[in-house]
Amino acid sequence: xxxxxxxxxxxxxxxxxxxxxxxxxxxxxxxxxxxxxxxxxxxxxxxxxxxxxxxxxxxxxxxxxxxxxxxxxxxxxxxxxxxxxxxxxxxxxxxxxxxxxxxxxxxxxxxxxxxxxxxxxxxxxxxxxxxxxxxxxxxxxxxxxxxxxxxxxxxxxxxxxxxxxxxxxxxxxxxxxxxxxxxxxxxxxxxxxxxxxxxxxxxxxxxxxxxxxxxxxxxxxxxxxxxxxxxxxxxxxxxxxxxxxxxxxxxxxxxxxxxxxxxxxxxxxxxxxxxxxxxxxxxxxxxxxxxxxxxxxxxx
Amino acid sequence: xxxxxxxxxxxxxxxxxxxxxxxxxxxxxxxxxxxxxxxxxxxxxxxxxxxxxxxxxxxxxxxxxxxxxxxxxxxxxxxxxxxxxxxxxxxxxxxxxxxxxxxxxxxxxxxxxxxxxxxxxxxxxxxxxxxxxxxxxxxxxxxxxxxxxxxxxxxxxxxxxxxxxxxxxxxxxxxxxxxxxxxxxxxxxxxxxxxxxxxxxxxxxxxxxxxxxxxxxxxxxxxxxxxxxxxxxxxxxxxxxxxxxxxxxxxxxxxxxxxxxxxxxxxxxxxxxxxxxxxxxxxxxxxxxxxxxxxxxxxxxxxxxxxxxxxxxxxxxxxxxxxxx
Lengths: 300, 325
Known about the structure:
The complex is a heterodimer. Chain A contains 11 helices and 2 strands; from the N terminus they run H-H-E-E-H-H-H-H-H-H-H-H-H. By secondary structure, chain A is an all-alpha fold. In chain A, a hairpin with a 5-residue loop joins strand 1 and strand 2. The longest helix of chain A has about 40 residues, at about 200-235. Chain A is elongated, with a radius of gyration of 23 Å. The two termini of chain A are about 45 Å apart. Chain B is about 35% helix and about 25% strand. The radius of gyration of chain B is 21 Å and the shape is globular. The two termini of chain B are about 30 Å apart. In chain B, strands 6-7-8-3-9-10-12-11 form an 8-stranded mixed β-sheet, sandwiched between helices. The interface between A and B is medium-sized, with 28 and 41 residues.
């Protein structure tokens, strides 16, 4: 007689998507969205963006400026680096490494930070105090220094890099989630859930986590751009992803030795990093405004 | 009172903060029979909400409860946390004061209703749960229950949300419903509808209701028995007729005197003074500092709750007042 549990279309979430679509009409947001879509496409189908091999060396055409056409008639749009490799091709192929490392690190730090933040905020007391001290300790220690030290011990590998970067930046998540859970814990609907006999784990997973999801998404966006920067810094310092795998930070690092002869080698990957972070932060800002009813937009 | 559903004996709840101990509910005993309504009346801070939370063991972590809460031969104060979870939402349902915030804002009404069923009737499949949840919404007379099932709380009005809360509390057919100021946050017309609904549901299911309120109008309309609390203690207990027509405790008399009456030219009589701080309670009668009848004995000696007529108990040295003053 009655229809079975069809999944209801969640009107609130639909509201967020509608809000997103509305915001896209603003030029800044539209550009940010386009940049992010392009980055993702680049890392999945690098062949669509360049026909060059990012590791093909040519001693004759090294350190050339933009729009350089070599003997075989190949156009190097952004020029070549110190080994004659095409800079644009390296930027395109580097997107994948950069994104894998930074997204992976965000996932690791989110998993750890959300877990500890939930526990600290929900349980409170001594547990909370211990987690808070851990956060303070972690924050007092520079992330980059920590990763450099740890990499020296673990040896360099992509997995270790991702894990260490994530491990070093969990406090951002933990702090925000903890304070959010602290206010949610005493809300009436949590008490109501208790009054119908819900278990603690059910209250956390079904009532608290969904309510901090929007905050998690916003923090994750901002963390992503931080991670891209950290990865670039580590590669620049020579402890990140190892050559010849192209990464943006590594390219800047390699180029700086030739800055007086060919400024383009470092400049273009640097520009790409700036544009990427700008785009992601713009989206993060938008997301926060849309998901936070307290910051409800007055304009239409 | 032939049979008893819930028998609370010597229940006390105290908040402990370091070496300081503040007793909020002090040695309270009462019982409720199936199908009857007990109203717990008192002003803000008299301990009535903490008393209700103590009964289902949902007081904050800093509180300590002692005493017995007997229900069907089980002492709820002593059962395991697992058993207590089965009882909450199973045998005992609870409605809270704030329908606006008592529902999870990002879960549909249906999902929240189904939750109680999932917890207490796990053998139901999704289709049966859906059916029972919609049936629950129909029972609380929510218009278009099938459509409400997929709505979010922010799409409902306060009265509708309180109906959803009632449906949630009743979804597993509890024997006892604890309603903590269920109508305080609603406007008067909605308040009357919700009370009528609760009355009908009680008749249909035969459940007992503990109604916590500060509104004597609600008490007169809905309760069978009344328990008046002041500063954590019961000061008077009896049937609704006796309490409202023949109050014996000076505090209850004061409460009655402070209700505005339509068509009356008498001045409203406020009770002078304020409730003493819980940490600085007078050793004797707690109402003595505000009582117009107080004598030196009241300040030193705490009165015991004793019956003046059958079923009407008063905690005052002078009760019944007509004979002793």
